[in-house]
């Protein structure tokens, strides 16, 4: 299905599981679409209402001209949940999806009862890093940064395996304008102070070989929220739900 935002942007949404089940909403990483969760969902308990969406500029969602603001990405998630009548959900955000998760919990605690911050942080990278990446993809396309991104995304074992080519091809197919727009949203985001004010059950997940958001950075963000849990998936990188979906499902299922 598609949900239309106030600015006319259409956001692609998918649902699995019973409509009356407890809602779990998934927000994917920069440079991926909702297929990020394909291997994970069948491993989760069958009584949950599992909701995925492609953020603007990615997947089957529209690609408006950038740059995008983090507030806009948060508002997109908010509008999707309001459209579906979802409240009190567990919100699972990976990478930029985890930043969206933090922003949504800060803004609308009625929508988010529990938080899963996967391979993310309250602040990621530096403005110079994101400016360089925006310039590269706008000038030369996604291919220009693909190999470097794959090295940061995946652990050594996965990079040596047969599935890397699939995820590299999917990354290269992301519209440069959508990717650059979301890079700008990350560049302008620092949630350290507002996230430290959150008080809700939180699980943080990290991969030992994550070159984008290393475990210490993820743990530092988790520590901002009193009582949070932290789980480490070994021999996995930035997208552990792809590299080790069984272990990811075990950790997430226990939290659910």
From TrEMBL:
Supply the name of the protein.
Answer: 3-oxoadipate enol-lactonase
- What range(s) does the AB hydrolase-1 domain occupy? 23-245
Can you name the source organism? Jannaschia faecimaris
Q: Which GO terms describe its molecular function?
A: 3-oxoadipate enol-lactonase activity
Query: Which keywords does this chain's UniProt record carry?
Result: Hydrolase
The Gene Ontology biological process terms listed for this entry are: beta-ketoadipate pathway
InterPro entries reported in the protein's UniProt record: AB_hydrolase_1, AB_hydrolase_fold, AB_hydrolase_sf, PcaD/CatD
Q: Which PANTHER family match?
A: AB HYDROLASE SUPERFAMILY PROTEIN YCLE, MONOACYLGLYCEROL LIPASE
Q: Which GO terms describe its cellular component?
A: membrane
Q: Keyword Hydrolase on this protein?
A: yes
A Pfam family matched in the record: Abhydrolase_1
